[in-house]
Amino acid sequence: MKEMLGEEYAAFYASYDLPKYQALRINPLKTERDTFLLQAPFSLNRVPWTTNGYYYSGNDQPGRHPYHEAGVYYIQEPSAMAPAEYLMAEPGERILDLCAAPGGKSSQIACSMQGEGLIVCNEIHPARAKILSENIERMGVCNALVTNETPQKLSDNFREYFDRILVDAPCSGEGMFRKNEDACDEWSPENVENCAARQAEILDCAAEMLKPGGRLVYSTCTFAPTENEGSISRFLERHPEFSILPVEKKDGMMPGVPAWTEHPADGLEHTIRLWPHHLKR
């Protein structure tokens, strides 16, 4: 990390001693945003990269409020709200969230769909698929199908079926070290390589399921270039029919770094990195 960040490393390291930012995302399937903001007993400030996301203060406890159990909002990491926003789901489309548990991104996508179309929310692990199903129900999503399948099995049955696909890929979890000590204990260079290989398999399956001209959004919760710039570049080498689409970056979002991977793909600078020392994530 020191080699990657250079002079910025001190600021990155210091960010881990700062208070953690927490956020919730208002569910428009259950309430109007303006109404909620008038009634909510929390101190809220807008998350800039999503319409319905709001930071709450350390004194608030929204997880204990009846609104949470009723699905009026979803408690979610601020950074986790970004991928679904860039998917840009529309009502009436067919959308796949390929690695969907626990359901935050799926429910966010469903809000954009406004009850029209189909969202398939898949999770390979049965216990996590059960949690995913419970959250989809709690959030009032009526146009979802929850599946417990491998990406390979889905790709055998849904060739060129989906308008948009989100792959929030299983990863080495470097961005989760402060939140989850197990992620730190499980990290190793070998695990990074194993995750990158798994990501390649998942992305290849996603490519088979996407309609020509569709949108594929890939995200991780790790800093490792092998799993980010590397996974993207290798995917584009295998699938030259895909290209990186430039999107608007909000203040504090940083570009991907082509120099961090061998054989960088064209347009890799248009990808987005979220660093804890650059924004409230």
From TrEMBL:
Pfam families: Methyltr_RsmB-F (PF01189), Methyltr_RsmF_N (PF17125). The keyword Cytoplasm applies. Keywords: Cytoplasm, Methyltransferase, RNA-binding, S-adenosyl-L-methionine, Transferase. GO terms for biological process: RNA methylation. SUPFAM superfamilies: S-adenosyl-L-methionine-dependent methyltransferases. Belongs to the class I-like SAM-binding methyltransferase superfamily. RsmB/NOP family. This is NOL1/NOP2/sun family protein.
